[in-house]
Design goal:
Layout (H helix, E strand, L loop, with lengths): L2 E4 L20 H7 L2 H11 L1 H4 L5 H11 E5 L5 E5 L4 H15 L10 H15 L3 H11 L4 H6 L1 H26 L7 H24 L9 E20 L6 E20 L3 E24 L3 E15 L9 E16 L3 E12 L3 H4 L3 E2 L11 E3 L7 E13 L5 E12 L2 E8 L2 E8 L3 E13 L10 E13 L15 E9 L6 E11 L2 E2 L7 E4 L2 E12 L3 E8 L5 E9 L5 E9 L3 E7 L10
Parallel strand pairs: 11-15
Antiparallel strand pairs: 1-3, 2-3, 4-5, 5-6, 6-7, 7-8, 8-9, 9-12, 10-11, 12-13, 13-16, 14-15, 16-17, 17-18, 18-19, 19-22, 20-21, 21-24, 22-23, 23-26, 24-25
Length: 599
């Protein structure tokens, strides 16, 4: 039992097959954690094929997926939980998952301007004071607080005049479009002037929200705290090579948020919010021998979710129950090949953070590529039926080749909507309809003794091609928003050995472009991106190990484009580029046997 926690981009239940379809900008990273390239890296690093006593890597992946739960939220928390009979291995596996995702996380730093904006939004909702409403209306129109105190008439007049100029220029552009081509010099000049006017108006509006005023009367602090308790029990038995197992799991996840607004004119205001998610799981599975060198594994999982909050306006109390059956077969084809298929029903639950009825301002200037984030207490879990089939071939003592086809039918697909609200872009999670996902993945592994690196060094590579189609909802006929078209990785590693010595590895990963077309009239894409990670460590027999690693060598960038139409029908493009800075980590560990003595 172990848990790895990160502050980042909601609570998800893992898909039981390989490489589930990627969903939205937040779920991208969760899906990446569950992808085959991540699983293979963990399998090689911890020798899970031997640990789980599996002949083929595909079975090892499925066993690892059963033992792993990953929950993620776009606005603050990612949790990785791994079950293992050895507590230290469990913790190491959880940390290793975290290492794959941590490079994609950025720091959340709410600027003074955003704090001020959030303060006014909350004040507008909570107060009936006419004066407060008037102040808010003036600030939203672009009037700076200091300018209002010194010369209110000039402040209001400047904003009104500029808004009128923008409107007049938009009308001019619409008129020119009727008889000039967009490549015409006069049309280009008009568009340039319109862009300059909009930029000036944006600066004034930003000043009105406190982004450029050095004499701000407002401040905001926003603190969040997560606590998780987990209790698990598992019973396994056999009187033959076939196993049966059953278990129970009890999880409690508490999330508390404290927001404090400080206003030098009206004093301070403290707002506390809290919610608790309880998960109660009972599961069991059994193996049977079938004719034709086939093994059938049947499983059933019952999961109950209980969501509560002291304040029903934050999150309404909800109770949900799911039954998740699964069937899996393995058939030997000759000495070194097997064919297998898997059928399962799985659910993906919304994150507690996504359910919070609260708004978090964007980091930096608000735009379509950098919007505010709002919770949605009406989110429903995503449900999927998954069918996988494939072949595995053992190539040599260290060699392996696998090919897998999969298809999944999704209901209540979770995705992210971006819409303009009161002059600001707002992003929220929503159920956007039903979808079908299908794809092909391949993986290959070989030893590197031929390269002079020793018999325990390995080279592994994985590639997946994903396709999907929304069958209902606002994006019907398009791909699932945020789903990468392909993923690939190459890994060179020397595994950790309990007998001692150095270990390490390097991984190059590639994530393909994605479509972002959840909202009507708003489209876009995330560009393809690559990342390079390395780590090195040493095992000291009987005592433990140390490991040092670097995520994202090369300072990879995350580029995003968005397209939308304004009131005149003109289509605008907004492009953002986020640098995912390298991160260095150090981990140490040990293991104790009887009488708490080092093993």
């Amino acid at each position: 039992m172990a848990a790895g926690m990160l502050s980042s981009l909601g609570a998800l239940g893992g898909l039981a097959g390989a490489a589930a379809g990627l969903k939205n900008p937040a779920d991208q990273y969760v899906a990446y954690l569950k992808s085959v390239n991540v699983q293979d890296a963990l399998i090689e690093r911890f020798k899970l094929q031997d640990r789980y006593d599996e002949k083929y890597k595909i079975d090892t992946r499925q066993e690892l997926a059963k033992k792993t739960r990953i929950t993620a939220g776009k606005d603050g928390l990612i949790t990785v939980e791994v079950d293992d009979k050895d507590a230290q291995v469990s913790a190491e596996l959880a940390n290793a998952h975290v290492e794959e995702l941590q490079r994609l996380l950025g720091r959340l730093a709410v600027t003074e301007a955003q704090q001020r904006r959030l303060f006014f939004e909350k004040q507008l909702k909570q107060t009936q004071d006419k004066l407060t409403q008037a102040e808010q209306a003036l600030r939203n129109s672009g009037v700076d607080a200091s300018a209002l105190k010194s010369d209110p008439k000039a402040a209001v007049t400047a904003v009104a005049q500029l808004q009128a100029q923008v409107t007049a220029q938009e009308v001019k552009v619409a008129s020119l479009r009727g008889y000039l081509a967009e490549s015409a010099p006069d049309f280009k000049q008009a568009m340039t002037e319109l862009g300059a006017l909009r930029a000036q108006l944006s600066k004034l509006e930003a000043a009105g929200n406190g982004q450029s005023s050095p004499n701000s009367d407002y401040a905001l602090s926003d603190e969040q705290r997560d606590r998780q308790w987990t209790l698990k029990s598992k019973l396994t038995g056999t009187d033959s090579p076939l196993l049966w197992s059953t278990g129970v799991e009890l999880d409690t996840l508490s999330l508390d948020a404290l927001t404090q607004n400080t206003d030098t004119l009206r004093g301070s205001k403290r707002v506390e919010m809290g919610a608790k998610l309880q998960r109660q799981i009972i599961w069991g599975q059994n193996e049977w021998a079938l004719p034709g060198k086939t093994t059938l594994t049947g499983g059933l999982r019952s999961e109950t979710l209980i969501l509560t909050s002291a304040d029903a306006s934050v999150i309404p109390e909800r109770r949900m129950h799911f039954i998740q059956p699964s069937l899996h077969t393995r058939t030997a084809i000759g000495k070194d090949m097997q064919w297998r298929w898997n059928l399962a029903r799985v659910t993906r639950n919304p994150a507690v953070r996504d359910l919070f009825n609260r708004t978090s301002p964007s980091v930096g200037g608000n735009s379509i590529t950098n919007p505010d984030n709002a919770g949605n207490p009406d989110l429903r879990p995503e449900v999927a039926w998954s069918l996988d089939t494939g072949l595995d071939q053992r190539l040599s003592e260290q060699g392996h080749l696998g090919l897998n086809l999969f298809v999944r039918q999704l209901s209540d697909t979770l995705a992210t909507l971006v819409t303009p609200i009161n002059g600001r872009w707002l992003q929220t999670r929503a159920n956007v309809g039903d979808a079908t996902v299908w794809g092909l993945e391949a993986d290959v592994k070989t030893g590197l003794a031929w390269a002079g690196l020793g018999r325990d060094w390995t080279l592994s590579s994985n590639a997946s091609v994903l396709q999907s189609r929304m069958t209902s909802g606002p994006s019907e006929g398009n791909r699932i928003p945020g789903q990468a078209r392909y993923t690939a990785s190459v890994n060179v590693a020397k595994p950790l050995r309990s007998t001692g010595g150095l270990f390490g590895g390097v991984t190059l990963s590639l994530t393909g472009p994605t479509q972002l077309n959840t909202s009507a009239g708003i489209t876009g894409r995330d560009h393809a991106r690559a990342a390079l990670d390395v780590y090195i460590g040493r095992v000291q027999p009987t005592w433990g190990y140390w490991r040092v690693g670097v995520y994202n060598i090369g300072n990879a960038r995350f580029n995003r484009d968005r397209h939308y139409a304004d009131g005149t029908g003109e289509v605008w493009q907004d492009r953002s580029s986020m640098a995912l800075t390298p991160r260095v980590y150090l981990s140490v560990g040990t293991r104790f046997c009887g009488a708490f003595k080092p093993c």
